[in-house]
Design brief:
The protein has helices at 5-13, 21-32, 37-46, 51-60, 80-85, 87-98, 143-160; strands at residues 72-77, 111-116, 127-130, 133-136. By secondary structure, the chain is of the alpha+beta class. A four-stranded mixed beta sheet has the order 2-1-3-4, covered by helices on one side. The radius of gyration is 18 Å and the shape is elongated.
Length: 161
Amino acid sequence: MVDVSKVGEIVERHGMKKEHMIAILLDCQEEYRYLPREVLEELAERIDTPLTSVLRIATFFRAFSLRPVGRHQIHVCLGTACNIQGGPRLLEALQRELKIKRGDTTPDLEFTLDTVNCVGCCGLAPVVTVGQDVHGKLKQSGVPRMIKRYRKEAHDAKTVH
């Protein structure tokens, strides 16, 4: 069961208006890391709109996820430059290291792996992004070290709290 108490705060911050649904959904996703059904139902009720209208927006935009995503979202660029410079091999290395396929999330909810068509850093090809971090000219051999770094950050963050 998901605690939907934050949805009310988020909706109120946006003035409880249907016109602000995208901004509300973005804030909800930031809070919950995805959009659970309970959150969408609570949102629909709070802004007095049918759940189908909320779902239409939540499923139309690729920025929204109805499935849990990892704390670290990894995107492998498969644009032309990255593809030529080894992007597909980086994807394979990440799949092996994380033991998941493209589009999946690790069972511990630390990593979600996906691809993008272009990051816009062609001079750094091949490129992998982890959240806002850009890893350019990455080689397959550097993948385990990169993942280890983010696992360590997650471990350190858990031990601080």
